[in-house]
Design goal:
With 142 residues, the protein is an alpha+beta fold. It has helices at residues 2-14, 21-32, 39-49, 55-67, 109-121, 138-141, and strands spanning 37-38, 71-75, 81-85, 93-97, 103-106, 132-135. It has six helices and six strands. The longest helix is centred in the first third of the chain and has 13 residues, at 2-14.
């Protein structure tokens, strides 16, 4: 994790910014999270550690982490962006429960191959893609 914070510090320096104590705390807290976290959720986690950190600081720091390529923001149709560490996640797709908001990450080589075949059939070079499948999880259906 220290390597990720160092990469963030290097990015900030190139932008003429510095790694403040608050940005460092937010980055460390973010890199400790697993899965997808909203700015609001990260803010609540940071507040438990240092109550004086404002929501705007958390939001701006997440934006900087995203710009640095260390966070990936995704909007799962629920009105706000959720972030995950881009530094430790390989490509994956998502199942999203429309009832409770649960997000399940998955990887399927057959789906990846099929996407490549479809793109090739249309003479299209894939640079990146996302697959989001919306429905209801077993808990919400039960």
């Amino acid at each position: 994790m220290n390597n990720l914070v160092q990469r963030f510090e290097t990015y900030l320096a190139r932008q003429g910014l510095r790694l403040t104590d608050q940005r460092s705390l937010i980055a460390h807290t973010f890199f400790k999270t697993t899965g997808h976290v909203s700015a609001e959720e990260l803010y609540r986690q940071v507040q438990k550690l240092t109550p004086g950190v404002g929501f705007a600081t958390v939001y701006r720091t997440l934006k900087l982490l995203n710009e640095a390529g260390l966070a990936a923001g995704r909007n799962f149709r629920n009105g706000y962006v959720r972030f995950e560490s881009a530094a430790r996640t390989a490509h994956h797709d998502h199942l999203i429960c429309t009832a409770c908001g649960k997000i399940v990450e998955f990887k399927n080589d057959r789906i990846e191959q099929l996407q490549e075949e479809v793109a090739g059939a249309h003479n299209f070079a894939v640079a990146d893609h996302t697959l989001e499948i919306y429905g209801t999880c077993a808990d919400c259906r039960g």
